[in-house]
């Protein structure tokens, strides 16, 4: 029990320290996956430890205030989901995510276009959130590393997506 708390504390401190650097190259714990965030624009929020052997690392964009067409402040986010022992294929994983939260696939892509050299699949997707009745758009990529499945999801409202597109693509292109 103490080991899990120490591990979680260490990961949290590591991610906070890395986020403080102007442009930080980060490594997902337990993988060889690295990615880059502009520490001035992205803030680490927290790590969620999942019962099925995975972790979720959550960041929000605070680089400048984004306001949607309705005048609401928008906080784009990056969620990195790691399932340490995933043995299914990536299309099964994508379908599981779709079942959990249905979305419209606007584009599917593979190598290039922000997919790491390790291979994988990616989507630009959209959905309407029933809670706030807003339309959202996102990049979601899936790939495997060291027996783990890794998912990056970069999301914002549909009307601020174009404004965040360069920032999202910069993060996706940094994944190694």
H/E order of the elements? HEEEEEEEHEEEEH
Strand order of the largest sheet: 3-4-7-11-10-9-8
Question: Structural class, judged by helices and strands?
Answer: alpha+beta
- Uncertain segments: 8-21
What does this structure look like?
This protein has one domain: Mog1/PsbP, alpha/beta/alpha sandwich (Protein Transport Mog1p, Chain A), CATH 3.40.1000. The termini are far apart. 26% of the residues lie in helices and 41% in strands. The model is unreliable at 8-21 (pLDDT under 50). The protein is α+β, with helices and mostly antiparallel strands and 176 residues long. The strands form three sheets. The protein has a seven-stranded antiparallel beta sheet with strand order 3-4-7-11-10-9-8, sandwiched between helices. The chain contains three helices and eleven strands. It has helices at residues 2-19, 90-100, 158-174, and strands spanning 23-27, 34-38, 42-50, 54-61, 66-67, 73-74, 77-83, 104-109, 121-128, 135-145, 148-157.
Kindly list the characteristics that best describe this protein:
176 residues, Protein Transport Mog1p, Chain A, 11 strands, 41% strand
Can you summarize this structure?
With 176 residues, the chain is of the alpha+beta class.
Indicate the topology.
Layout: H1 2-19, E1 23-27, E2 34-38, E3 42-50, E4 54-61, E5 66-67, E6 73-74, E7 77-83, H2 90-100, E8 104-109, E9 121-128, E10 135-145, E11 148-157, H3 158-174
Antiparallel strand pairs: 1-2, 3-4, 4-7, 5-6, 7-11, 8-9, 9-10, 10-11
């Amino acid at each position: 029990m103490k080991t899990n708390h120490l591990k979680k504390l260490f990961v949290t401190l590591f991610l906070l320290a890395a986020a403080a650097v102007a442009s930080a190259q980060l490594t997902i714990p337990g993988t060889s996956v690295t990615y880059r965030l502009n520490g001035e624009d992205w803030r680490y929020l927290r790590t969620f430890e999942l019962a099925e052997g995975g972790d979720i690392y959550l960041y929000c964009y605070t680089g400048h205030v984004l306001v949607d067409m309705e005048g609401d402040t928008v906080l784009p986010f990056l969620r990195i989901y790691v399932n340490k022992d995933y043995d299914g294929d990536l299309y099964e994983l994508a379908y599981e995510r779709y079942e959990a939260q249905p979305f419209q696939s606007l584009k599917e892509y593979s190598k290039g276009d922000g997919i790491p050299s390790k291979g994988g699949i990616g989507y630009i997707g959209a959905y309407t959130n029933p809670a706030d009745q807003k339309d959202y758009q996102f990049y979601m990529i899936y790939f495997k590393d060291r027996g783990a499945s890794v998912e990056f999801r970069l999301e914002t409202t549909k009307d601020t997506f174009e404004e965040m597109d360069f920032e999202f693509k910069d993060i996706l292109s940094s994944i190694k």
